[in-house]
Specification:
Layout: H1 11-18, E1 23-27, H2 33-48, E2 53-56, E3 86-90, E4 111-115, E5 128-131, H3 138-148, H4 156-169, H5 180-191, H6 196-205, H7 209-220, E6 223-225, E7 230-235, H8 237-242, H9 253-258, E8 265-273, E9 276-283, H10 290-295, E10 299-300, E11 304-310, H11 313-330
């Protein structure tokens, strides 16, 4: 990975923010720490500069996100919120990934995105796009933005939000997206007041008993294919309910499956609504999963991607397995 941090803020984004009055901030559906932490940190920074900003977040966020500063204090979009002059989206570059939140957007609102996911052939749904595929997390790009704001100093609250984003998107600095620039950004955040040990404990190692119960049941349901190189599992809504776990507590389970010795490709389906599945894909180098995700209408990185599909899991699973096994062959295994 190239050591590009700090990234250079595009002139178009500077002009976009300078010309915006009321700004709504959003991230993708089923927010993760990178999307939500980036949103909160940027919101805090813009509010510190006297800018009217509001968070457009309709989905439930994981319980441990309550550890992030201003988790609920950043004003949420509601019926009394002023109409936006602009929308700033984090950690995705397509409005169709905002989920239900997109339904609340007035028509014709100018959109800018800040992201680190590579753009696919569907393009970007924004007037201004700042996408840095070499960044380990969108948080690194946002940190570059905050450091470029006039007379702004990143404070401990903003640093906490961004460090949580960075440590989760790199798997505790274990994933292949971790490079020299990642550690330099992490050092800057710690210098700004982020408590690295406490954040890592909260976001990577602390789980409710219900979440651990769910994890154990998922491992009992894992199917291994292609001589153990492909692992697949599903979490139907009934399993989630019987474990007393929340949807947000399924985050990270796919990484546990990826850690199994011999596994090269992983697929985990989580039922969002009746017969609507969010499928997370993971790969160990040199294998990739973003092509598989795109085949099913999703996208992401080479080693981590996702898509949403309608229907029954037992109908989706065989087609997905064929695609993953095909990917094994294309990678020379």
């Amino acid at each position: 990975m190239s050591a590009s941090y700090p990234y250079r803020v595009p002139r178009q984004l500077r002009d976009f923010l300078a010309g915006s009055g009321v700004i709504w901030l959003a991230t993708h559906e089923r927010p993760d720490a990178d999307g939500y932490g980036s949103l909160l940190a940027c919101g805090l920074a813009l509010r510190a500069q006297g800018r009217p900003v509001f968070a457009l977040v309709d989905d439930e966020v994981p319980a441990h996100f309550e550890a992030l500063p201003w988790h609920l204090a950043l004003p949420r979009v509601d019926a009394h919120t002023p109409a936006p002059d602009s929308l700033l989206v984090f950690d995705c570059h397509r409005l169709d990934r905002l989920g239900r939140a997109a339904e609340r957007l007035p028509a014709g609102v100018p959109v800018a995105v800040v992201d680190h996911h590579p753009m696919d052939d569907r393009g970007c749904q924004a007037e201004v796009a700042w996408i840095e595929p070499t960044a380990a997390a969108t948080a690194v790009v946002v940190l570059s933005l905050l450091r470029a704001l006039p007379d702004h100093v990143v404070d401990p609250d903003q640093a906490t939000c961004l460090y949580a984003a960075l440590v989760t998107d790199t798997g505790g600095f274990r994933y292949e997206n971790t490079g020299e620039d990642t550690f330099r950004a992490a050092a800057d955040l710690v210098a700004a007041g982020a408590d690295a040990a406490a954040i890592t404990e909260t976001f990577l190692h602390q789980r409710r008993p219900e979440a651990l119960r769910l994890l154990g049941r998922v491992f009992e349901r894992v199917d291994y294919h292609a001589e153990g190189r492909v692992a697949m599992a599903s979490i139907p809504a009934t399993l989630l309910a019987s474990s007393d776990a929340a949807v947000g507590e399924t985050e990270g389970i796919v990484s546990h499956l990826r850690s199994v010795a011999g596994v090269r490709l992983v697929a985990l389906g989580v039922e969002q609504d009746r017969a609507r599945w969010r499928v997370s894909l993971r790969a160990k180098p040199p294998y990739v999963v973003h092509d598989v995700a795109r085949r099913f209408g999703g996208g992401g990185h080479a080693a981590a991607a996702a898509f949403t599909a309608e229907g029954r899991w037992d109908q989706l699973q065989p087609r997905l397995l064929d695609a993953l096994i095909e990917q094994l062959g294309e990678s020379g295994d």
